[in-house]
TrEMBL record:
One of its GO terms (molecular function) is 2',3'-cyclic-nucleotide 3'-phosphodiesterase activity. The keyword Hydrolase applies. Hydrolyzes RNA 2',3'-cyclic phosphodiester to an RNA 2'-phosphomonoester. This is RNA 2',3'-cyclic phosphodiesterase. It is an enzyme of class 3 (hydrolase). Signal peptide: none annotated. Belongs to the 2H phosphoesterase superfamily. ThpR family.
Amino acid sequence: MSHYFIGIKVNAEISEKLMDWQSILRGTMNYKDWTAKEDLHITLKFLGSCSDETVERYVHRLRNESWPSAYPLTVGPAGGFGDQERPRVFHAGVQRVPSLMETKEKVDGIGEELGFQKEKRKFNPHITLAKKQAEGVSPLIDASKDSVLLETYEMVVNEFSFFRIHPGNHPKYETVATIKGGQKI
C-alpha cells in the first residue's frame, strides 16, 4: 500500500521565491532532505498507508462537500521547528486564515469518520523547504543579511489535492485527485 496526504499545492510564482530561499539556506546549512520545487505544499492531513478503496472513499467524500471559495493566503516569513540555530525543519510560514482553518477542520472531520485519527498537535500551517538537518547555522540567526527570508507573499487558494507519496522519486508527490473550492462536483 502507498502512503498519502491531503494538501494545498504552492503556485509557480511562490515556488520560485521559495527556491530562492532554499538557495540562501544551502549557503549556511546542510539538510538531508530538500523539498523539490514541484513538491512544495501545505499539508492539511497526513494519512499514511491507505488501500485504494479507502482513497476512493475519502476522495468521494471530499468531492461531495462544499468548500470555501478562492481565498488569499499569506506565505512567509521563513522559520524553523526546533533549535533556532539548527532547526530540524526549515519552512515558510503560512497565515492561519478562517477559510484555511475551515478546510483543515472539514478534512479532519471526514478523516475521523473514515477511521483516521485526528492530529493531536495544533495545526501549524507551513511549507517545508528542508528537513533532517545535519550541520550548519540557520541564516535566520542574522536575518538582516538575508532580509528576503523575512518577506511575505500572497497566494490565492482555490483548490487542494489528495497526493500519493513516492519516496524514491523526484518529484515525490503525485496528485491523485484535486478538489475545487466553492462547489460540489
